[in-house]
Amino acid sequence: MNSKMKEILQALIDDEHIEFATAGKWSTSTPANTLSVLSQWSFGCTSTDLRIKPKTIQIGEFTVPAPLRKPPSNSYYYYANPAYGDVARLNWEDSSVENTWLANGVLFSTEQDAELFLTAIRSLTREQK
User: Residues of 110-125 as b/e, b for ≥16 C-beta within 10 angstroms?
Assistant: First the structure.
């Protein structure tokens, strides 16, 4: 069993929402459908994709993807730096600085998520004309 299958099964056990892709569009999956797709994966049929429904947070008027709450499952992550307004792709080294960033909600799994977070933060702090 590969790590993605384990991750989806654990999410199902944890009662998280699972989505499946049909023609490039993500839709809510039922537990029965999720198990059916996982069964197909175990036989090598990977034509249907599954994912854990992304969690979101509200920042002002923006709904943005939630930051990472645990170390990244990949070796890399994206750091959204509010002080400089930029995003950096870094490799996870489990340092005290990285763990502080993780606790402060400025790490993301994609560059796009980090950029959207910075846009939302800037919308709250910019001077209104």
Answer: eeebbbbbbebbeeee
